[in-house]
């Protein structure tokens, strides 16, 4: 794992818990107006890519988790 973000592991955990494939998460992000590629999502989940605040907000809404949980605060 990398050290470029702190939410990658939890994004993967929440995505898998909901049975969402990476490609499906990408489609949902695009509908939310967040453009990200499959390689970029893989890097995000591997903590090798920083995450913007816009991406964090969209991920928490799509994955139906509190952004603070993604950040490891709760």
Explain what you see:
- This protein has 74 residues and is mostly helical.
- It has a single domain, classed as lambda repressor-like DNA-binding domains (434 Repressor (Amino-terminal Domain), Orthogonal Bundle).
- Helices cover 57% and strands 0% of the residues.
- The protein starts with 7 loop residues before the first helix and ends with a helix.
Topology:
Blueprint: H1 8-17, H2 22-31, H3 38-45, H4 53-62, H5 67-70
Question: Alpha-carbon distance between the termini?
Answer: 21 Å
Q: Major β-sheet, in short?
A: none
What's the CATH superfamily, by name? Answer: lambda repressor-like DNA-binding domains
CATH architecture descriptor: Orthogonal Bundle
Tell me what portion of residues adopts beta-strand conformation.
Answer: under 5%
Show unreliable segments. none
Task: Just give the CATH class.
Answer: Mainly Alpha
Structural class: mainly alpha
Rough outline: globular
- How many domains? The number is 1
Number of helices: 5
Radius of gyration: 11 Å
Mean pLDDT: 97
Give the helix level as a range of percent. 55-70%
CATH topology: 434 Repressor (Amino-terminal Domain)
Strand elements, count: 0
N-to-C order of helices and strands: HHHHH
């Amino acid at each position: 794992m990398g050290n470029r973000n702190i939410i990658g592991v939890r994004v993967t955990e929440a995505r898998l818990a909901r049975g969402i494939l990476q490609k499906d998460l990408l489609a949902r992000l695009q509908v939310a107006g967040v453009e990200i590629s499959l390689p970029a999502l893989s890097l995000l989940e591997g903590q090798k890519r920083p995450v913007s605040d816009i991406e964090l907000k969209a991920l928490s809404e799509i994955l139906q988790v509190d952004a603070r949980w993604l950040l490891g605060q709760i």
